[in-house]
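We modelled the chain as a single entity of 483 amino acids. Its sequence is:
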Amino acid sequence: MGESLVITALLLACLIALLLILVARRDANEVRRRSAEEAAEVRQEAQKQRSDAEQRSAQVAKLQERFEADQEAARERLAVKAADLSQRRAELETERLEFENRLRAELARIGEFSVSQAREELSDRIQAEIEHENRALIRQAEQAAKAEAEHRATRILTTAMQRLAVPTSAQSIVTLVQLPSEEMKGRIIGKEGRNIRTFETITGVNVVIDETPTTVLLSCFDPERREIARDMLEALIADGRIHPERIESVFHEASARAEQRTHEAGQRAADEVGVSGLAPELIQTLGRLRLRTSFGQNVLAHMVESAYLAALIAADLNLDVELARRAAFLHDIGKALSHEIEGTHALIGADLARRHGESHAVVNAIAAHHDEVPAETLEAVVVQIADAISAARPGARREELDQYVERVARIEKIAEDSPGVARAFAMNAGREVRVAVEPEQVDDEAAVELARTIAKRIQTEMTYPGQVQVVVIRETRATATAS
């Protein structure tokens, strides 16, 4: 029993010892594992620090190389600047020596001057400086005056045009006559057409009777004939008696009334614009223009419009308003006689005004409104401006587009075909062509001859209403820069 207890105790002690050994071995293994992990971490950290150190060393080396390269570039730049400074110092020394030599020479020259010579020399220098400053001031004043003049001219012209409201062009070669009934057409035709034949023979106007109800067309290129025919037909319709003898009688009556209407139209236009004291012959001639058109614009209406515009512009410029109004109102009066008298309408009108007591200023303005003679007064220039505005404003004149484009293109082509021409532009609805020439190829004398040649070709090769003015422009430019 006692031995069993001892053996059991010994076994327990052995087991406990074994357990303690196992626990100690486990703890030792754990300690060994942790030590190995810590050693690995220390080795990794050391490796990382060694890698960082190597990278920093490489960066330091690169920075050192860059620093050395920058130092070398800076030394080179400093060397170049030093060389430039040395060269500039040498140049300045040379300039200083030259200036001193000039100064010594000038002082020596001045030392030889007498008092009067020195005063004269000083006066010449001061005068040269003053002239230089005056030229600069004059150029500035001219530029400012030009800008102000352009601004004021634009304002005056736009104001004058805005204050005048006039109708657009209206051109027709037919006149409509309304009939009281459809059966009147048969009476106008007459038995076997004798009435209409007599009417057309006496008046020179074609009578067109078509299917249009209660309407007859009178067709003729001459507006005066067309007006007389209209008056005759209306009188015949009102009277009711239509036969050859009555047609002849009514024709004479209508012709007499036409003269009266002509005078009334001229007087009415003069009264409308406020022009008084015109000779009866001028009034009658003006009335003849009531039926005349130019590019679709009624000539008498154009003259009235030009008179209004000239008066407005002259008032803004503080010129003689009545002179400008009168000259502009009469400027195209020669168109009433241009088909009867040889010459341009401007010169014909000027001669007519002179023979009927108009002043020299008015006569000159009429003759000069197309630059055929020089303008002697500012009012004559105002008449040119008013005429151009009235003729060139939108809707004032009308022409078939195809014919207009073809005519303008042909004018430019004729001008550009001439030797030495750089470019050509048709202006003012084809009434003017401006030709720019090469100054190296065309001199002043050749420019005059070129203008005559182009004008002669246009006159020979083209058909056009009115006149075409050829302007040759020769310009030479020289440019220099002051710094």
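As a brief sanity check on the tokenised model: The CA atoms of residues 195 and 244 lie 6 Å apart. The chain has a mean pLDDT of 81.
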